[in-house]
């Protein structure tokens, strides 16, 4: 069966599921907000315990990374991401998941050639382009 390009596009449009954008947006907002609320609760608890703000902030980041990696290891972060979508891309937890997930997936290939080599497959480009972009923005700011 030969389809023209237009017939194929029409068939794809006809068969494609409609994206529930309002539902997806609301869930992303709720899940992302819940992650941020958890971070704020940890920060508030650390400040109430008498930690200085810098140490409380560090503790909050470490706790969020730890929770994210733990949930990734238990395969719960993936389920949360399927439910909450982009809401799980909160920078600290999303980045920790992006580092831990490939490390877990390639652990069977060994510590060096598997886990260590593949850990940056998702996060590596983010680090590289983030560093390059920040250098370019810094140079532009310096020149202005």
Give an overview of the whole structure.
The chain has 144 residues and is mainly α. It has a domain at 22-119. Helices cover 81% and strands 0% of the residues. The protein contains seven helices and no strands. Helix 2 packs across helix 3 and helix 5 packs antiparallel against helix 7. The model has no long low-confidence stretch (mean pLDDT 87).
Total number of beta strands: 0
The largest sheet is:
none
Mean of residue pLDDT?
87
Give unreliable regions as ranges. Answer: none
Over all CA atoms, what is the radius of gyration? 21 Å
Helix and strand topology:
Blueprint: H1 5-15, H2 21-48, H3 53-73, H4 76-84, H5 91-105, H6 111-118, H7 120-143
Task: Provide a brief overview of the structure.
The protein has 144 residues and is an all-alpha fold.
Features:
single chain, 144 residues, mainly alpha, 7 helices, extended
């Amino acid at each position: 069966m030969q389809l023209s390009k237009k017939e194929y596009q029409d068939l794809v449009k006809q068969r494609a599921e409609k994206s529930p954008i309002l539902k997806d947006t609301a869930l992303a907002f709720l899940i992302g907000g819940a992650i941020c609320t958890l971070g704020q609760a940890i920060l508030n608890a650390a400040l109430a315990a008498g930690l200085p703000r810098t140490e409380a902030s560090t503790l909050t980041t470490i706790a969020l990374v730890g929770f994210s990696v733990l949930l990734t290891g238990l395969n719960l972060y993936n389920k949360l991401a399927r439910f909450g979508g982009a809401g799980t891309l909160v920078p600290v937890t999303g980045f920790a998941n992006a580092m831990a997930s490939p490390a877990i997936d390639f652990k069977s290939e060994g510590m060096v050639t598997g886990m260590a080599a593949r850990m940056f497959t998702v996060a590596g480009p983010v680090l590289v382009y983030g560093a390059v972009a920040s250098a370019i923005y810094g140079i532009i700011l310096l020149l202005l």
